[in-house]
Amino acid sequence: MAHFLRQLLVNLYNNLFFAPLDRQAESGAGSGAGSGAGLRPPGWLQLGLLAALLVAPSAQAAGTDSETVMAETVAPETAIALPLDLSNPEVLSQAEPSLDIDRLDAAERPEAYGLDADSLGQVTSVNQLRDIQPTDWAYQAVQSLVERYGCLAGYPDGSFRGNRALTRFEFAAGLNACLDRVQDLIAQGTSSNVTAEDFAVSQRLQEEFQAEISTLRSRVDAVEARTAQLEANQFSPRTRLSGQVIAGLQGRTSNEADRFPVDGIKDFDDPGTNINLISNVQLSLLTQFSPRSLLLIGLQSGQGSTRPAASDDSRLSYEGSPLDDATFRLSDLTYRHLVGDRLALIAGSRGVNGVSVFRGANRVESAGSGPLSFFAQRNPIINIGAGQAGAGFDWQATDRLSLQGVYSSSDASNPETGSLFGGTSNNTTLGLQFTATPTDRLDLAFNYINAYTPTGQLGFGTGDSQVSFNTPLNTNAFGATLAWRVTPKLTLGGWGGYTKSNRAGADGSVETTNWMAFLNLPNLFGAGNMGGLYVGQPPKIVSSDLPNGENIPAFLLQDPDETGGLPGTTTHIEAFYRYQVSDRLSLTPGVIVLLNPGNRPDSDTVTIGGVRATLTF
Fold first, then answer.
1. What pLDDT shows up at residue 234?
2. At 468, phi and psi to the nearest 5?
3. What is d(CA 97, CA 95) in angstroms, rounded to the nearest whole number?
């Protein structure tokens, strides 16, 4: 009798639930027993199956030996094969009991509810389970399992939790407990006997519903496969808006410049010394089309600048491009895609250049939260060409080495005087940067830029950016940046840059140099704050043998035979302190001192003072 019940119960449960799980495990779609992954049938369906088989009334056949009936009815070739040998102690030892007190969390232990752990084994009435009501559809089944067979218990808080999904471990433990209880009842002679007719009916029922069971199993397999596919590929495009608002109040001391340093007489009075307000608003729309691709759209608007000025040395970081009409303009339109795990590609019609593609070794590069001056943001050679449209890549070769590359054009949309690859008014730039992190505290970056500029304007944005008069030049630029985080609160670093520009198709060249040394003090006087000290030389023409009429030093010195550079050297000194008012608002006061501005030895020293407020969202 016990053997028959074991076979019948386990076979039905296996047909409905275990087989799909076994196939899923073979396909690698999920884990097996114990994890709760894969197909998990609803608790009410498992409980209903168990209750229906144990509670269903059986025919009386007094005096019939159940083992004899089994022997007479089930032939060896038609015996039900069990996928799980419940009679094997090693198999049963792998299943958790329905309630293992020692494995419960403190919040679930009986003591947390004022219960004695031993009382859990003494549930003799369904009324002892507080969440089982006579109106529940499975009330009679639970009542019979608890009161008639005594093989199900509740949880430590006196609940049955009949609507919760059942794990395979829980079902195996509960099924085994009920089967053991039935076997005990048989041994005690208190169970009903099963006749051959009862078994024949059971066999016919199984055969009759075999097609439905197979269909259900196929449908479950299909649902599981579809669910796994959806979970692996589910994604909906979303767009996130972020941005920053910058307002800067600044002014500089009155000064005069010796623009033509030939006689030591100052011939230019700086007209832009009044205190003014500069504003800059940047909006970024980041749309993620898939986990590996995104579209960046940037808008920028602003008013005010430090112009007019004797030189670009006084330019500030948050001026951006001249935005005098306070209307929004497109600043970025780029698409980025990750190929594999280490290569990212970028392409776009706006905002593709070395600044956006290269990684900054100095980690405080930012117009809103870094140094106040434009020069102190990064090595100026990265700005060469002022490119906008093009393509680039970022390859993480190893965990500590990476390579970035970019090709950009400044006037790609103009078919008459510009283009993506040339034109009479179009700057084209090809750049590479190799970055290395030999240790966790040291960042290195090495730059190479090859550019064509048809007007002699390299586009540094500061210092001697104009190196010839309307001369098409081919430029090769080299730079290196180092940042050493000595301690979490001290970073030392610096950069150097060199350019050599040759006349396109003719003799003559012009060379420039620039350098910077800096000190950053993160979290100075509070978390999120930062102090900085920067000392350097903006780009300076150090040599030029371009012909007369194209040679800028010769023109300014009024000497047609001059082949050297300008006689003076500008020294840039900047100190600032960023105070983090809140997570989104910071105030940055600072001062900038320019010695020999414009690389003129007799020009007055210029002192710039300002305070920048930055709101991010």
1. 66
2. -155, 170
3. 6
Quote the distance between the C-alpha of residue 221 and its chain's center. Answer: 34
- Among positive and negative, which fits the CA dihedral 488, 489, 490, 493? positive
Among the ranges given (120-124, 334-338, 430-434), the one the predictor scored with the smallest mean pLDDT: 120-124
And the tokens for 423?
Answer: 């034109």
- How many C-beta atoms surround the C-beta of residue 454 within 10 A? 21
Q: How confident is the model at residue 92 (pLDDT cuts 50, 70, 90)?
A: very low
pLDDT of 215: 80
Instruction: Give per-residue pLDDT as tens, 583-614.
Output: 999 999 999 999 999 999 999 999 999 999 99
d(CA 495, CA 482): 6
Task: State mean pLDDT over 340-368.
Answer: 93
Question: Residues 8, 53: contact at Cβ < 8 Å?
Answer: yes
Instruction: Report which of 298, 318, 386, 349 is spatially closest to residue 586, judged by C-alpha positions.
Output: 318
Instruction: For residue 214, give the amino acid letter.
Output: S
Phi-psi sector, 596: left (phi>0), alpha (psi -120 to 50), beta: left
Tokens at residue 324, please?
């005098």
How far lies 129's CA from each of 13, 105, 143, 152, 160, in Å?
Answer: 26, 21, 10, 11, 6
Distance, in Å, from the CA atom of 208 to the CA atom of 375, rounded to the nearest integer, reads 85
Query: Quick one: CA torsion of 407, 409, 412, 418, rounded to 10 degrees?
Result: -130
For residue 308, whether the previous peptide bond is cis, meaning omega lies within 30 degrees of 0, is yes
The mean pLDDT of 408-422, rounded to a whole number, is 84
Q: Residue 432: exposed, middle, or buried by beta-carbon count in 10 A (0-12, 13-18, 19+)?
A: middle
The model's pLDDT over 40-68, given as tens digits with 9 standing for 90+, comes to 344 444 444 444 444 443 333 333 333 33
Phi-psi region of 81 (alpha: psi -120 to 50; beta: other; left: phi over 0): beta
Number of helices (H) and strands (E) in the chain: give both, helices first. 11, 18
- Which residue is it, tokens 């198709």? 505
Burial class (CB in 10 A: 0-12, 13-18, 19+), 102: exposed
Task: Give the C-alpha distances (Å, rounded to integers) separating 561 from 511, 540, 545, 565.
Answer: 17, 19, 9, 12
Structure tokens at 493: 């670093």
Separation between Cα atoms, residue 311 and residue 251, nearest integer Å: 15
Residues, the chain? 617
Confidence of residue 126 (pLDDT cuts 50, 70, 90): confident
Mean pLDDT of 25-33: 36
Q: What is the dihedral of CA 179, 180, 182, 184, to 10 degrees?
A: 170
158's tokens: 């006196």
Spatial CA neighbour of 99 closest among 27, 167, 20: 167
Residue 32, φ and ψ in degrees, nearest 5: -95, -145
Residue 169 — φ and ψ, nearest 5°? -60, -45
H or E segment to which residue 239 belongs: strand 238-252
Interacting residues of 387 by C-beta distance below 8 A, sequence separation 6+: 352, 353, 354, 406, 408, 409, 410, 427, 428, 429
Residue ranges in 82-148 assigned as alpha helix (H): 89-92, 139-143
